[in-house]
Each structure stands twice: as structure tokens, then as C-alpha cells.
Design brief:
Strand order of the largest sheet: 1-2
Number of helices: 13
Helix content: 40-55%
Mean pLDDT: 79
Oligomer: single chain
Largest sheet: 2 strands, antiparallel
Strand content: 5-15%
Length: about 350
């Protein structure tokens, strides 16, 4: 006959778990079928329960001293406390330090050390080292690249930097994630991304070489944003990450279009980066995809966001029946208006017509 070591209920011979409390049956009990729990009182008067060890003869022995009790091996029922992570303290006074601290709030000690370099700073240094290896092309090499155009070999430095960026693991702390997003946004060149397919032939060639690195930065920034969104969505630091993310999207559209696609307003201070598929419905990659955006003046941006206007597959404006004729005049909406749409805009515009446009 055997009993549960946790609640004392009788166990059947084939039980792996107690029918009453669900506690697992010790292995030695299932083998011997003769387990009897006993209580051991230590010197501090606390009661501890220990499973007895079975021998081939079926006899059991209890520890003779309190020291033997304290050193008995742990079982799978023992509760353990495990501490993870690192507590950063001031080396001068021992005050626990929060993130983004460069000076101890307790004693004013300035915190600086080579060991304190963040992973983002180390990445930046490695990128600078790669850039320093770039050689100025000779006249012959420049002529050859100009002749080959888009078939010219990939620049090895840009390729090496792209590989380094792609393989870089996104940090875990919110301060380092923010630091990485700032680094990525400062390295994303909207002019290079927009100019890789249009403009002066020499610049197009240069931008095409840069594109491999630019795509790596954009892709990695998407990953950093997603991690921040999952890790600390309600923290004020995430709002900073989101603002930087949105500013990258706006700069990409400004370089892609430069003016309102409907009315031609070109003052950048008056232009808005409008998402075709709303920001709240987008995946992180879609949030800074230039093909998910239109550059519009405030009036047309409001009409588009609210669903009063949309565009068909040819780019021609579609007006909702809910927009009155008089308001169309005041808001400068004319039936012959048309914008230039790229084939990559189509999936987003289809979403807008189905889900946002007021039919």
C-alpha cells in the first residue's frame, strides 16, 4: 500500500499522479510500491517532508542530524527561485541605475567605461571600419561601371555592410532598441532609395550600388519596430520609436513624389504622408513601404483618410456619394483628376476601395 507524499491520499499501484491533488508519484515509489511519507523536524522547528529512499530489502532510513536534512538532494517537487538579468549599480556608491543614465543620481558619479559600450555603438564602429576600407575607383574602373550600368558588380563594401546589418541581433533593452532605431533612421537615405530607378544616369548607378545597404537598414528597422511593439507597447519609449518610424516614411515619400499628387502643392511644410492602407491595419513592413503611401496636401489627405475619395486602377479619382457637390468645389476635387499609380500601389489601393472608401 502506498500514499501520496503531498496530501497523504492512498495511491493505486499503477498511479503516475495522485488522484486527489495531481502531484507526480516519485519514481522510487512506482518501482517499490511501498512508499510511506514521514515528517522530519529540523532544529528550527519547521516541518519538511522528504521522500524516503528505497532499498532492495524494502527498508528506509531517515537523516540523523539537521545538517543531513539540509543537504538532502532536491526532488522534482522542490520549489526553486531563479534570478535572471543584470542589476546595474554605481561603482562609487552602489545606487541601482535605471536606463539612459550617464550620471549616478545618488552621488553624481560620471559613468564611463569601455566595457559600457552598447551593442549599437559597437555596430556603428564596425560599420565605420568597413567604410574606411573603401577605395576611390580609378578612371578606368569608373568608365567600366558606367558602361555596364546595372550589370556592374556589387560594391564589396556596401555588400559587407549589408551583411553586417542583416546579421546584427536586435537588442533586448528598450534604450538600446531606441538607440538602434535612431542609428537606422540616420543611415536610411530616402534620396538613394527613390533615385535608384530614376534621375541622372550616374546618380542612378551610384544609388543602385547603395540600395543593398539601404534595403538592409529598412528591413532591420522593421524588425526593431516589431520587437519594440511586442516588448513595451505602452512605454513612452515606444512612442519615440514610432515617431522616428513615421518620420522615415514621410521622408521616403517626400523624395519619391515631392508634391501633392492631386493638386501639385510643393511646399514640404504643407504636405502629409498618407497611408493607403491605414497605419493601424499595417504590418511593420507595410508601415514604411513607399508604395503604401501617397503624398497629399492637408485637404486631400483628409478626404482620402476619411474615405470620401479613392482611386481606381488607372489612378482616376473616385468620389463618394457622401461628399456633396458644393464640398467638392471647396475641397478642389474635380472629376478629371488623376494620379500616377505604380503597379505596386494596386494591392493597397484595392484595400482602400474595399474597406475605407464610403460607397
Amino acid at each position: 500500500m502506498s500514499f501520496c507524499g503531498k496530501c497523504g491520499c492512498q495511491l493505486n499501484d499503477d498511479n503516475q499522479f495522485c488522484n486527489n491533488c495531481g502531484a507526480p508519484v516519485p519514481k522510487e515509489l512506482t518501482e517499490s510500491k511501498s512508499f510511506v511519507p514521514k515528517q522530519v523536524r529540523s532544529n528550527n522547528s519547521s516541518i519538511r517532508e522528504y521522500p524516503q529512499s528505497a532499498s532492495t530489502s524494502g527498508s528506509y532510513s531517515l537523516p540523523n542530524t539537521s545538517s543531513e536534512v539540509s543537504t538532502m538532494p532536491e526532488t522534482h517537487e522542490t520549489r526553486k527561485e531563479v534570478f535572471s538579468g543584470v542589476i546595474h549599480k554605481c561603482p562609487h556608491c552602489g545606487t541601482v541605475l535605471e536606463g539612459f543614465v550617464v550620471e549616478c543620481p545618488g552621488c553624481g558619479y560620471e559613468l564611463r567605461s569601455e566595457d559600457s559600450l552598447s551593442s549599437v555603438e559597437k555596430l556603428s564602429q564596425r560599420l565605420e571600419n568597413l567604410e574606411s576600407q573603401r577605395k576611390t575607383p580609378t578612371a578606368k574602373e569608373s568608365l567600366k561601371d558606367a558602361f555596364l550600368g546595372s550589370f556592374a558588380p556589387v560594391d564589396t563594401v556596401y555588400a559587407a555592410k549589408a551583411t553586417l546589418i542583416t546579421s546584427y541581433p536586435i537588442p533586448n533593452t528598450k534604450e538600446e532598441i531606441l538607440e538602434f532605431v535612431i542609428l537606422a533612421s540616420s543611415n536610411i537615405n530616402p534620396e538613394a532609395i527613390a533615385g535608384a530607378t530614376k534621375g541622372d544616369a550616374n546618380l542612378v548607378q551610384l544609388y543602385q550600388k547603395m540600395l543593398v545597404e539601404q534595403n538592409a537598414w529598412v528591413s532591420k528597422m522593421e524588425q526593431a519596430y516589431r520587437k519594440a511593439q511586442l516588448s513595451f507597447p505602452t512605454d513612452p519609449v515606444f512612442l519615440q520609436v514610432q515617431q522616428i518610424y513615421e518620420s522615415v516614411f514621410r521622408n521616403l515619400l517626400l523624395n519619391q513624389y515631392g508634391k501633392c499628387l492631386l493638386c501639385g502643392v510643393s511646399d514640404h511644410r504643407l504636405l502629409k504622408a498618407s497611408h493607403i492602407k491605414p497605419w493601424s491595419k499595417c504590418e511593420p513592413k507595410e508601415k514604411i513601404d513607399i508604395y503604401n503611401g501617397l503624398l497629399l496636401c492637408p485637404n486631400h489627405d483628409l478626404l482620402f483618410d476619411q474615405g470620401f475619395i479613392s482611386f481606381d486602377d488607372t489612378g482616376k479619382v473616385i468620389c463618394s456619394n457622401e461628399l456633396r457637390e458644393v464640398d467638392r468645389v471647396f475641397m478642389n476635387i474635380q472629376p478629371e483628376m488623376k494620379i500616377r499609380l505604380d503597379p505596386k500601389n494596386q494591392k493597397y489601393m484595392e484595400y482602400h476601395r474595399k474597406n475605407i472608401f464610403l460607397k
